[in-house]
Amino acid sequence: GKRAMADGDESTELESVVERFKTAYLTACERQDTQPLESLLEQLENANSSGETFLSIQVRGNTPEHFDSRLKDGDLEAIVGALQASPGVLITELDLSWNLIGDDSVAQLCEYLKTDEQIVTVNLAYNEIGENGAKAIADALSVNRTIRHLILSGNKVGDNGGLALAEMMLKNYSLRTAEFGDMDLGHKTLTMLGTVLKNEETAGAGSDSNLEVLNIDRPLLFSCKEEAIEHLAMGLRLNVTLRKLSMKKADLRDRGCYLLCDNLVLNGCLQELDLSSNKLTEDAGGPLATLLQNNQGIETLYLANNQLCDRGCTNLAAALCSNPQITDLDVAHNRIESDGLLQLASAIQKHGELCRLRAWGNELEPQSTAALAYACQHLKTLRDCDILCQIVDDVPNAVRKITPESYFVPGK
């Protein structure tokens, strides 16, 4: 009987907290002269009825219900006002991606985050946050020790805004995920990120420093000498925490690839490397092969939309046999012809551990198509391959395998 009474008290307490937040939100909307978000009210009702302990505010602008009514500054200010007026509510995630939120309301949110001890994930990707907003976020996270995942991709904060965020990461050891893709970052930001990664090596052993995921897709780098990549690579050399690194669309050339691979050979923690959509040629195959041969920690390697050609693919295939840890390989759209694809097919059979392969978009002739199809068919671990083989008039023809994941979905 006492246990039932205790459960009833907890349910009543949760309901009162949610109701208090809902009332505070409606009051804040009235004060800001903004329309309350029906989806947010629905989320609160669901939390009330299901008895969830932790709440998640998710209002993504790229969903059908919000596409024509994306959040603006006034909407975020109403949400922040409600949070400030109901300190007991346990909100752990704030996902307001793909909206029209600017610097003014972000500054108000950051003032709240300085004292908040509940929110773990902040997703403000693809809004209209600029340099001042980035500096406000950096200022808040220099104090906040609760936020683990910060997703800001798609906000054009520029090099100065990115620099402020990178400098914040020197002080904040609680951040696990930093997604800064498509933010117009420049030389200063990448140089500072190299210092951050190097700092993780010295701080990692004696603190809770654990940056695990870093996304710096599409930085704006204009130097052919790739000095910023060199600083970043030196930071990766002895880093002991990073698990995933994404550098898509970074205009990375063969020298930059060599610098990354040469330093990552000594890195024992990185598991996923994404260098898709860069300017890598067949000369990059050598450094990538050396990396695979000497670093047994890498499990996922994405190299799609480069120009590795036959020689680069042959080097990768030779290295693949000496690294049984690789389970996910993407070499799609790399101008690889029959010789390289035949070497890849042979390596796949010898490797025996590959779970996912992407090779569509290369020069798939009948011989190489048949060899790849045979290798994939007899590899028991392979669960996903984007190439199918159809026999027409006794000639093998490559057909792309279409799955729901093949389609582009904004924000995913």
Quick synopsis:
By secondary structure, the chain is an alpha/beta fold.
How many individual helices? 13
Mean pLDDT figure: 89
Low-confidence stretches: 2-11
The SSE string, one letter per element, is HHEHEHEHEHEHEHEHEHEHEHEHEEE
What best-fitting shape do the alpha-carbon axes yield? Answer: globular
Query: Approximately how much beta-strand content do the residues carry?
Result: 5-15%
> How many runs of DSSP E, i.e. beta strands?
14
Spatial strand sequence of the major β-sheet: 1-2-3-4-5-6-7-8-9-10-11-12
State the distance separating the first and last CA atoms.
Answer: 48 Å
Helix content: 40-55%
User: How many strands, what sense, and barrel or not for the largest sheet?
Assistant: 12 strands, parallel
What is the CA-based Rg, rounded?
A: 25 Å
Structural class: alpha/beta
Verbal overview:
It is a single chain. The protein is an alpha/beta fold and 412 residues long. The protein is 44% helix and 12% strand. Strands 1-2-3-4-5-6-7-8-9-10-11-12 form a 12-stranded parallel beta sheet. It has a two-stranded antiparallel sheet with strand order 13-14. Strand 2, helix 4 (103-113) and strand 3 (121-123) form a beta-alpha-beta unit. Helix 8 (227-237) runs parallel beside helix 9. The relative contact order is 0.05.
